[in-house]
Amino acid sequence: MEVVEIRFGIFYEHQLPRPWDQGEEHRLYKDALEQVEIADRVGFDYVWEVEHHFLEEYSHSSAPEVFLAAASQRTKRIRLGHGIVQLPPNVNHPARVAERIATLDLVSDGRVDLGTGESSSSAELGGFGVRRADKRSQWEDAIDAVTRMFVEEPFAGWESRYVQMPPRNVIPKPLQKPHPPLWVACSRRETIHFAARNGIGALSFSFVEPEDAARWTGEYYRIIESDECVPAGFAVNPNVTVVLPMMLHEDEETAIDRGIDGAHFFGFALAHYYGTTPHDPGRTNVWEEFQERRAARGFDRDQIIANAEALNVNVGSLRGAVGTPDQVADLVRRYETAGVDQVVFVLQAGPNKHEHICESIELFGTSVLPRFTEGREEREAAKAERLAPAIEAALARRAPARKVPPGYRIDEDAELVRARRVRRGGRPAGLRPALSLVRDEARSTARRRVQQGLFRLLDGRSDAEIERRFGPRAQRVFFAGMARQYDPSAAGGFAGELEFRLSRADGRTTVWTVRIANGRARARMGEAREPALTIGTGTADFLRTLAGTTNPASLLMDGKLKLRGDIELAPKISEMFGGPSPY
Q1: C-alpha pair distances (Å), 4 with each of 247, 334, 376, 381, 394
Q2: In the sheet that 509-517 helps form, which strands lie side by side, from edge to edge?
Q3: pLDDT digits (tens, 9 = 90+) for 337-350
């Protein structure tokens, strides 16, 4: 793997665990702005700010453009990254995205990076009425429209299933030409491929080890340089970023004491909102649940001890970059060798203290960052020169900017009539589309019932109790239901057999096979003939993993989860069979 230049960023969810005192949110934002000022001064390259809605405690960051605008006036050089803007039109109309991004680019003197995504949490999708099955196609539709709004003058209009807009000159235009660099949120291998096919940067939130990241970056750049790459925008942004929790101190044990609870809360709260855990708005206390259940869900504080020779991102529990400057520098070097272009650190997480975050940022600037700056510009230039022919060829495959028909004039009455006609045409008409909608809604309702039932089965019960309730008869019903919930759109074209080997405390093992072919899944008891992937684990751990209440990485590290075959299939199994995945 070619060693590339590496950049550094800090990442904000604006986490605020309960209890909340008066003024806590105000202090949270003011502290974050002070931290960004320090990061700018010591040499960090990016600040990334997420957009989330309704995810109390996990993310109080619903208007990143406002925070980044404030940061732009308190900094001089750090780039301002949306990580991410949610593009489904029910959340953000494409014209409003284009206007806000261009304005921020102007007031920041051209320092904006536009990260985009779809969201995947039930709280957000349901809150804005976005159907899970449509969110990817909505992203593809919206990113095309937004980038055209940046470059077309005037914008030539839009008619799609999701957005209808007549020609308008969308102003202002961004300072960066043709537009700010584009990124997309990624949580698994298929979305890394998706980013490369669209010629945009990959923001990876999967806490992947450096050695695994090497495979991802290799595949990403192979696609960037192939005919598969058809840019979503009017420029190509070939970059791969990984996100990690971080806390830095010269003494390893102090770094752990200051930062590991924040790292673990970040992972726990992520699983809370993107798994099947019930949530009552305004009443569920995620921080209390974390304190009570962290160890059982794969975030065991006792698993993280000092005196590590080298940092592994996941070792028993999520650790990330919590350690000494030498340990973190070694971890970054491994990512650099793996071809990763940017490492972004989450410091503001859980109960992490403002003063400790500021100390960590300062220490990184003096003790880690200087080790990676020598020769950076030369390596960046060499990378740009190497990719230039492929980028030129990719942009030639992108449909060009359009022109408004000659003589077009704004006519409110005619445009409203046309919009109504397009909306009628975009709605399902006739029996088959209507049945499709009914089927999708029925599937969604069934999925919620299965998830609620699964949570009730597991909540507060021991392994032995779960095994008694989930014997062969219950397993037959479960795997049949799992096959019915199969979603071909989440399978990435996979066809073959998945084998599940579920063990019990008494030594018995039950084997099930799910066969996927022709867009359908069928389950049967017994071994697979040619399994693409075999998953071996305890019955209780299997159910907790599907429910999102146990961290599979921790099971893998502890030897409680064994994978044989194509292990790249493992992370997407939950989503293939009706469950959500992060971002």
Answers
A1: 25, 11, 8, 10, 21
A2: 520-525, 509-517, 496-503, 531-538, 561-565
A3: 999 999 999 999 99
Give residue 452's domain range: 431-576
Tokens of 408: 């077009």
Residue 543 pLDDT class (50, 70, 90 cuts): confident
349 and 459 belong to one structural domain: no
Q: Indicate whether 464 and 386 sit together in one domain.
A: no
Structure token pair of residue 483? 């096959």
61 found inside a domain: yes
pLDDT for the residue numbered 447: 55
Q: How far is CA 159 from the centre of its chain?
A: 29
Q: Is 319 exposed, middle or buried (0-12, 13-18, 19+ CB in 10 A)?
A: buried
CA 346 to chain centre: 14
Question: Closest Cα to residue 171, out of 237, 223, 105, 83?
Answer: 105
Contact 245, 321 (CB under 8 A): yes
Structure tokens at 369: 């960052």
Q: Do 447 and 338 reside in the same domain of the chain?
A: no
Q: What is the rounded CA–CA span in Å between residue 510 and residue 301?
A: 33
Residue type, 121: S
pTM of the model: 0.81
Q: Six-digit token pair at 339?
A: 């071809």
